[in-house]
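To assess whether the prediction recovers the assembly geometry, we first specified each molecular entity separately, as shown.
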Amino acid sequence: MDKVFFTPGPTQLYPEVKTFINQALDDNILSLNHRSKEFIEIFSSTCDSLRRLLNIPSDFHIFFLSSATECMDRIIQNVVDKNSFHFVNGAFAERFYKTAVELNKNAVKAEVNYGEGFKFDEIKINNDPELIAFTQNETSTGVALNADDIYRIKEQFPDSIVAVDIVTSAPFVNLDYIKIDSAFFSVQKGFGMPAGLGVLIVNDKCIEKAKSLNERNISIGSYHNFLALHENALKFQNTETPNVLGIYLLGKVCDALIGKGIENIRKETEAKSKLIYDFLDEHKKLKPFVKDKTIRSHTIINIEAGDKQAEIKKQLAGKGILVGSGYGKFKDTQIRIANFPMHTIDDVRRIIEVLSDYK
Amino acid sequence: MDKVFFTPGPTQLYPEVKTFINQALDDNILSLNHRSKEFIEIFSSTCDSLRRLLNIPSDFHIFFLSSATECMDRIIQNVVDKNSFHFVNGAFAERFYKTAVELNKNAVKAEVNYGEGFKFDEIKINNDPELIAFTQNETSTGVALNADDIYRIKEQFPDSIVAVDIVTSAPFVNLDYIKIDSAFFSVQKGFGMPAGLGVLIVNDKCIEKAKSLNERNISIGSYHNFLALHENALKFQNTETPNVLGIYLLGKVCDALIGKGIENIRKETEAKSKLIYDFLDEHKKLKPFVKDKTIRSHTIINIEAGDKQAEIKKQLAGKGILVGSGYGKFKDTQIRIANFPMHTIDDVRRIIEVLSDYK
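The predicted structure of the complete assembly is given in tokenized form:
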């Protein structure tokens, strides 16, 4: 039986990934020197495709790291001397905050319960933060922040660098990059690729900040500091031998998504999430974890399933549908369903059919 | 025409890699959750295979990072508070040294010219180094240090942590791990795999050192600090979603190498390098860059080709054989030939045949 992975990631591969990988093998892409003309063309073409797909302005730089977790690490290291501020409403926002703590920064957080958003007007940011960190789509809870709220904070703190975790919302989320300074994601989520590549998007303000820290002899790290990444990215290269296959596949998947039309993909994603949320809102026992409809993620849907969780997961698995468990303390009571471009509306209907049996 | 990559890395893929990748795709390995039982089995099995292949003692820990360059970064960050000492005889040893400088350590180096080894008896190590760093096989020059020299330094400085770069000598190099503290490599060299995975091997002394730095509030980094890596490795996991395909493939390639017998592979490697060096020693114009026969690398062979370099490379390429250029200032005058397990003795003979035309 064919399996379909609706897990938050790693997840179902984008349908053409197998073909793309075999093309890479046949074309000897994986044996290419990482300073060669051929590799530079791949790097450059992937950047072009990603810019087109996500509408990334030309004055933003694209860096290839190894994971979104590394992106957090490098952002803190390169733009924070002393103070950062973090909006924390789940495990991944907490990871970003903890990264700052572990790197000995004065990190302050505004924290709300899992499943909730923020009352932005009531939150005081008064530690003069060099960085304000948002987790736009919290993979642990299924809460999505509205981009407008993020832009408003940036307007209030124009001197701070605003970095946005879009790990499980890209490529669905439609960000206006000029209203933020940095965003990052990993590819084993909405791009349906093998894990092992993190993508970090930064503007010149981030590079300038790294430069200024470096000039003041504050360590910004070594091979993956922003100055080294930037210097190499200008030549369409990495400092180290990067995940060449990942960079190649990302370009191919972006091209496939462009072919389908990002607007179509966004509409389809909303249609699929509406099917699930509408069903859950009517359901007597299964409930969406996120009560506030204005902050429900379209791409990560957390369902409160209580003591039926294991049974439902098993039932779905019996039909070849693999879904995620809840995160942390919700591990045994919640189900998480990813809703990415490679998940079809027919498969979503099959999930709902199974869930309908629980009355 | 089929191509054979004799480049130092990325290089020719191990013959079964294509089959292994397609097996991973068919078995949905790339969609597995990185905390799942199935993933844990893959991680654990890869560690077992690597331990068997390289004879790594059970009290050494295996960490999966993203590149050898990251390994350098993390070693410095986790075992050096103030002082490190570096044996520098090429670009990669210099990279290790520079990493320490960039992380604001007091790094001291003993430096010799490219193509040379060290007169170990004459070198004074007197900065009380917490780390002594060796590049056992210098990929830029084709110089291989003898393991016994490394062990002797460790005997003289038992309190220092000795870390050994075996990026282009693994799995050929036969190290006695209990006589050092750490070694690392990346997989796109002697293992013939796609790039994007670095393997770091450390003993408890390294973990203890990281713990002591951490307790003294000296930053050891965040998600890839040794304590987090160690805690997760004990559960056969990474802190982040790692390069799952890389970890899976490494296990499969190790099993294949074990099947061939590591002793056979080592003998075959020596036989192939002997063919090339013997030929070069007799040749009137083409010369081995490394004059001292006792420190010639078996796995990276640098040839001085002078003004014939471009022509020879082209000639070889015409027969489907891709070799590397020299490194840095030797870019246009040297040829680098990798001699890894997937390179056959017949292909080596084909290289020699082409080189024989240059009289």
